[in-house]
């Protein structure tokens, strides 16, 4: 059986996965790491199902080879993607680091906005 990030791939990529699938995500950790925070609980309650395709489809053409690109690594990302951040970031033109969890735009919006401003201004120094 084929695996993606250590998770067995389904037989079909059709359909949706539930946003609270414990095999794939810890939504509170993605936001601010505090499941007791009422704002975080409210944000998690608004999640909608994601397609299975988004987790398992194979990328056949890497756009990063033909357009300027970057990667943001949140310092406190505890997701599966977080453990793979450094190897994925190494393949990009620019790596940005910021405080926060998997969704730094939620946990640290000011710091994330600074990164977006640097990108918009064309600043490509590594953090």
Task: Give the helices and strands, then pairings.
Elements: E1 3-4, E2 7-8, E3 16-17, H1 27-31, H2 38-45, E4 50-51, H3 52-56, E5 70-74, H4 80-83, H5 85-89, E6 94-98, H6 104-107, H7 109-121
Parallel strand pairs: 5-6
Antiparallel strand pairs: 1-2, 3-4
Brief overview:
The chain contains seven helices and six strands.
Number of H- or I-type helical stretches: 7
Q: Output the strand order for the largest sheet.
A: 1-2
Q: Please trace the helix and strand order, writing H or E for each element.
A: EEEHHEHEHHEHH
Main β sheet profile: 2 strands, antiparallel
Please give a structural write-up.
It is built from 7 helices and 6 strands. The protein has one domain. The mean pLDDT is 78. It is 35% helix and 14% strand. The longest helix is centred in the last third of the chain and has 13 residues, at 109-121.
Features of the shown structure:
globular, alpha+beta, single chain, 127 residues, two-stranded antiparallel ribbon
